[in-house]
Amino acid sequence: MEKISSVNNKLIKDLVKLKQKKYREETGLYLIEGFHLIEEALKANRTYVYLLGTSAALSQAETAYQADLTSKKVIQINEAIVHHLTSTKNPQNIFMVLKVGQPKHYPFDFGKWVLLDDLADPGNVGTIIRTVDAAGFDGVVLSPLSVDLYNPKTQRAMQGSQFHIELLVQDLGETIAALKGNGIPVYASMLDTAAQELPDFRPVPQLGLVIGNEARGVTPAIARNCDEKLYIPIKGQAESLNAAVAAGIMIYHFA
Fold it and tell me: Could you tell me which residue ranges the RNA 2-O ribose methyltransferase substrate binding domain spans (predicted)?
């Protein structure tokens, strides 16, 4: 186990940069923090690049998760370094560096999928991914203009679900074409005169479900390629539902 005590150490400076999307893309690495996320990564047998923590935090990881503290990938740090690495107000003093890992191609020949059309809020995206996991769906596809999947806020909101299901970032038009080419219908959640009320629509065993941007909704080009448009009836005076809430209602309708 290596020990680093200076915030000016080159490795620490490089890891601090991983809080920025630019450096995550350049290095192919990202940072997670906190015992729960690290536990879920280890349960999923994710190979990590580094495990960093204070002496007490690493000892806890050794006891709780059988982390091998003799590994060269384990680095003991102090609280000064913790405050440079953390993205939270109350850090748990433990971090893990992982490789960005996404399949370049996916057949989309079965299953239930949620497609996120340019969603901008990391909390919404993380919550939807967590809901997809809880409902037993197969995965989530994010459009390239959606919020960064490896944003620290997105990672925290997913609460470990990122290690349980398929997550891809790719063109939604191509995704929809692949799903429909395999006989899997694609529905868009949107307010539209041609949309059907969700309660009147029968669940199907396989589907793609498109959730639109928080402000603009589903992109017109994407909506035109969907088989059906569905909406959740509003019974009160609210103009609309939060994207993550609406997604959760629809996801469980088809779960």
Answer: 31-104
